[in-house]
Amino acid sequence: MIAHSVFFYIFSLIAIVSAVMVTVSKNTVHSVFFLILDFISISCLFIMIGAEFLGMIMLIVYVGAVAVLFLFVVMMLNVAEQKGQWFSSRWDGGTHIPVGLLVSLIIFFELIIVIGGWKYKPDLLNSLSINISNEVTNTRSIGNVLYTDYILLFQISGMILLVAMIGAIVLTYRERAGVKRQSYVKQISRERDEGVDLVEAERNKGVKIDA
Amino acid sequence: MDSYFSILFTEVYKILFLLVPVLVSVAMIVWLDRRVWAFVQKRRGPNVVGPFGLFQSLADALKYIFKEIIIPASSNKLVFVLAPVVTMTLALISWAVIPFGEDFVLADINVGILYLFAVSSLGVYGIIMGGWASNSKYPFLGAIRSAAQMVSYEVSIGVIIINVLLCVGSLNLSDIVMAQQNLWFVIPLFPMFVIFFISALAETNRPPFDLPEAEAELVAGYQTEYSGMMYAMFWLGEYANILLMCAMGSILFLGGWLSPIDVFPFNAIPGPFWLIFKVLFLFILFALVKATVPRYRYDQLMKLGWKIFLPFSLFYVVLTSSFLLYFDLLPGK
Predict the structure, then answer these.
(1) Of A60, A65, A182, the CB nearest to B114
(2) What is the per-residue pLDDT across B247-269, written as a single tens digit (0 to 9) for each?
(3) Least enclosed by CB within 10 Å: which of A44, A49, A66, B243?
């Protein structure tokens, strides 16, 4: 058990330190790298409590896809210069501190509610209709409840994600004039007659192309 | 305390026993790649150092070790140094779950295939970090291209893996191989195998999808500023990833360590050899593709990934699951 707790403390230390570093570090790209480190150590913690499926999904979804997009945005937009200004009044839009405080207060109270609810955990577990056994792998047991008892919620969350995706596409899509698109069908079905024109050229006059 | 140390020593011994062969075979595979490439083009390829030029990669490695490592003055030094380390580490840690035979695997974890998928999706970080930290235009463009490309093709690889998992009913790699005892998945899922192969080419930045390092446009992409051993680590990591993709392909579709038919002369050959044969077969296909197919344009690459592979493999998931359901073949019942 000693090794187990040593590893637990190592991973949680890394998680907490990197979470702090996300907000503290000056360089925005470094912030994102620390965020990735945070995700990875949290997925290690998941694996340590035996939730290997959740840990792996955390790695695939958050580190493999979400954080890559974060990095993209941060690298492309050059947010690094703006980050310092957000917290000072030099920026035209005023400071973001009041909004930030509000949001963090709300999150703080939510955390208190969640952690307070932990006190009633034994009752909660007893009231659930799911029987948790150690013999079934947790991938299988998640599947067993996700696709039976909670199928409606699962489908609804899928629909919400779809709506969000379509919304993002609609918001960012704009029709641009003069964009050349390649159509394989059109290219392949082109005949010789459409591409080649036999023209009787007059002397000293030349031929007009693309009339 | 003694038991901890004994566990530690046996594990370290096992890890070395796995990693040293992997690294040696990576070096050999580079030689094989160049040889196949040369034979297709009617050249001889590397044939001077050692018998058939077998020691060419060793000679190259020696050269890289003795070259100076140049770190650009305007680069972000820590990230610049970390990038090849990340690439190399990620390329090697995924070998821990590859089963070479029955009970011949370093870590037989329940979610083996998810682990492989997760680690291969992390591989993009080495490239992004290298490209960004170089603080130079070509590496940055290469890194951006590579990130977009790998994220896109991961999606289709994920859906293909779902196809296989539907037929197996387990995420464990040994279970996936054992489920193919009667029929390799390459037969019922042949279209998926083809798409997996092409996506693996894109995922490992191999030609014809080597746009992140397209020399005509981007010099050497994200590797432009790297030199010496740091460049060699990128390069080794890349080939280790290619080998890993081949191993993944042979485990998912070609029956891993199983012999093609379960009769005497074939099943006498030990399992690891079969896996190595299959990996080599897939790798030679990789090399042949490199030698014969011209490079894709970037928009064509994206179109192929999102508009052709993704819808088709999603359709195949529906097909596979409805087939299994209709004929009552679903595993795990």
Answers:
(1) A60
(2) 999 999 988 888 887 777 777 77
(3) A49
